[in-house]
What does this fold into?
Amino acid sequence: MDPLLKRIAGTDDETIKAIKDRWEDFQGMLNAGEKKWFSELCFCILTANTSAEMGMRVQNALGYEGFAKTPEKKLAAELRAAGSRFYNRRAEFIIGARRFDGKLKDIIMDFTEVDEAREWLVQNVKGMGYKEASHFLRNVGVGKDVAIIDLHVLRLMREYGLIGHFTSMNRQRYMEIEGILKGIAKKAKMPNGKLDMYLWYFKTNKVLK
It folds into this structure.
């Protein structure tokens, strides 16, 4: 763990500022309205098994109105045109998520524990696993200490000998890996959700969301 902590401590000032600014954007989402929260939910659905950049591109192209009101076949076509993978399936997921449009923020904020909110998302929003649900909660400012465990983070953890190789991710394994990351975050004196941005940057040289 020490080599990784040293690498985090040695991060250049420009990257630290970029991460700080993005973190403040996430915290600002706590004051955002239902439309922005629903748009962010759709963004996180779109990032499953693909890139955050693609999700951002589609989110910028469609916006809340596109996510919330476009008929399913047209939505699938627009997702395809914007470069989304699995566009038919993702259109289906977004259509299904519309039943929470206008009340999503209220539902999430009503939970007293972020883990309960995450379980609710996984159980009730098709297309969301633990990674996507954690991603959403981090991005709207609620899940400061959740981990967004994607392939980049897993590869980095393997490089530093923090985890071994495995072929599938279930709930138990996700929580075990999140626990390891929480230990690193505590030593690095930052929330787990912010640590994720450092780890992601180390593999991609990018600070996104």
